[in-house]
Amino acid sequence: MGKTKKVRESARDDFDCWWWLIQNGTPTVFITVGLFALLVRVAVSLHPYSGAANPPKFGDYEAQRHWMEITTNLPVKEWYRNSSSNDLSYWGLDYPPLTAYQSFIHGCFLRFFHPQSVALFTSRGHESYLGKLLMRWTVLSSDALIFFPAVLYFIVVHYNQPSRGLKSELAWHTAAILLSPCLILIDHGHFQFNCISLGFTIGAVAAILSGKDFVGSVLYCLALNHKQMSAYFAPAFFSHLLGKSLRQKHPIVEVLKLGLLVLGTFAVVWWPYLYSTQSVLEVLSRLAPFERGIFEDYVANFWCASSVLIKWKRLFTTESLKLISFTATVITCLPSMIQQLKSPSHRGFLYALLNSSFSFYLFSFQVHEKSILLPLLPATLLAVEEPFIFKWFTQFAMLSMFPLICRDNLVVAYLALLALFVLILNAPVQHKVRETNYLNSYLGSATMFFILCCSFVLHIVYLTMHPPEKYPFLFEAIIMNLCFSQFVLVTLACNVKQWLLNRPAKLEEIEKKLI
Hints:
single chain, mainly alpha, 23 helices, about 70% helix, globular
């Protein structure tokens, strides 16, 4: 009895770092972690951005600024149309209409405080101090107004369940989502607005988990209309909602309701372009950059990794590669979709989001390094259920982006966020799990230590050594193939785990044998 009391006291002492934070409930947790997360974002935004002082086209920062310039100076019907006022070869809009509307709102904000930063023609390459400050504030405000509330919505829904009584889990999970190093680096360092589409996606997931399928459908449509890469999640949303609808009293009616709601949402967003077929096609043609090839730079997916041996771009035409990549993506999505059609569940839905987004990342056409943010989102939402997979995946996701981060001169911010992430990973959290997970915990710790060592060596090599002249991208290729191999392992493991949800009894037997 005395020994048990000592163990409990020891466990309480281990969690004193969370106790002061969680004793007042979810609002205190979220406000405290949220304010710290905003401070971290501000600190990262003080570093360089994509294409800083690098004419003639600069980088993603200039692309976002140019879209604000175009949307605030031209009529909505000309935003996607090539003309003397809108040269699409210079950072033409290549995202859906909701991104254009967001650019218009932010452009109005810049024009009010600093008109020169969005003046038509003359503002190209504008990099004044005030202009950069206002641009950074547009991302911070987007995070605070969309991403943060969506995360709060998810946390409230996810932890408003009888099986989730540990507040230390809630605090740790909130920190893991709001302090995601990859998202902070890309949005507040490199400069993009992924927080908006990912925020809508998190809100959609939370709505569906709380039984509000119609709200979830609308929010996901908004995510899809902000960035077309949100289609990475489409198989999961489609199969889960269809699987639930087919179990209703009137399945056809439920499916029709969802279909009409989706069409209605798209119609509202696309309304300025629905006056003619040509106008719609002008927008659609900008959303699919097939002319860029099946991959750019060194991205850790199948096409780039296998190109070391198979020269896809030389052997196949663009049309053939489109068909091949589409087929591979659909085939790898099917197991996850079938499972959700057969047995839709909340946890299965989260696994399906991870598995479908990984299928797109690994096999779809025109994937960029930054696209790793999409599978990373559901992995983060599953961080408490799958802590080892979350830690393992995030480490390699960061490594896969390291060459891009170096090009943007964000190494200091990268290393600082990596250190912060390691601290969060190793924060003492009392997970409410079964004993059988202890084995995975010990295995995970050993594996993570090995990964950190390998990752450390690769970072040092990339920063301090020069590759052979004959192979100028040798280090990028090594990083890419290492990360690709781990991503494949993660998606295989998560597909198996999703299907094992259908066999809880047998899973228990397997776990008992492992002990």
